[in-house]
Amino acid sequence: MSFTIAIDGPAAAGKGTISKALASHFSLAHLDTGLLYRAVGAQVLVGANPLVAAKSLHPETLEASTLRSPEVALAASKVAVLADVRNELLVLQRSFARRPGGAVLDGRDIGTVICPEAEVKLFVTASAVVRAGRRYEELRRIGTVISTEQVLADVLARDARDTGRAIAPMVPAEDAVVIDTSDLAIEEAVAEAIVIVQKAREL
Ligand code: C5P
């Protein structure tokens, strides 16, 4: 039986942590769909054509650690406005979503475009300042030298591009449950998400 959890929201709101925790708690496969766009963006930074890069993507071989830089994030959000790139990645994401045993996908348009029929939809968000603070800490931990002002500017620029684009803009699905993590510890946010999914599994 397939069971899909769609998790959307802006950068550094806690989607990734919640997605991984749900996947582990309910024994579901997990796909961080941002990595697909990051992999295409990284190829474009070294001169590739975006559609060619999207077509030659192998999701099983994506190495997350090499795709975490702010430059790659920005490049990802630029290729993410291209219709042919999104269509190419859509097929791949849909087949992952409906795999037997169930799946958690996190991104920007999972509940609205990729899996409108998902059994659970969450929209995880937080204020831009809180998200920039978290992203700054993450980047610092992996040794990136960057100012807090620059991180906030990057977060705001990416938000604007993701919400303002014509195709698959980042918006909560009408039937998504919104979790605002601005004032929540990550354990509290995870606990809230687990309760929501548990209820849906009992239906
Ligand atoms: O989630 P992450 O920050 O890794 O995503 C990088 C970029 O990829 C986002 O800013 C967004 O532009 C794009 N993206 C998207 N749709 C998704 C996932 C990511 O457009 N489902």
Structure explained in plain terms:
- It is a single chain.
- This protein has 203 residues and is α/β, with parallel strands linked by helices.
- The protein has helices at residues 15-25, 34-45, 50-55, 70-79, 83-97, 110-114, 128-141, 148-164, 186-202; strands at 4-8, 29-32, 103-107, 120-125, 177-180.
- The radius of gyration is 16 Å and the shape is globular.
- The protein starts with a strand and ends with a helix.
- Bound molecules: cytidine-5'-monophosphate.
- The site of cytidine-5'-monophosphate (C5P) has 15 residues, from helix 2, helix 4 and helix 8.
Topology (elements, then pairings):
Layout: E1 4-8, H1 15-25, E2 29-32, H2 34-45, H3 50-55, H4 70-79, H5 83-97, E3 103-107, H6 110-114, E4 120-125, H7 128-141, H8 148-164, E5 177-180, H9 186-202
Helix pairs in contact: 1-9, 2-4, 4-8, 7-8
The protein binds cytidine-5'-monophosphate.
Largest β-sheet summary: 5 strands, parallel
Give the helix/strand class.
alpha/beta
Number of DSSP strand runs: 5
The helix-strand sequence is EHEHHHHEHEHHEH
Mean pLDDT: 94
Approximately what portion of the residues adopt beta-strand conformation? 5-15%
Keywords:
binds cytidine-5'-monophosphate; 5 strands; 203 residues; alpha/beta; Rossmann fold; five-stranded parallel beta sheet
What is the compact description of this entry?
This protein is of the alpha/beta class and 203 residues long. It is 53% helix and 12% strand. The chain has a single domain, classed as P-loop containing nucleotide triphosphate hydrolases (Rossmann fold, 3-Layer(aba) Sandwich).
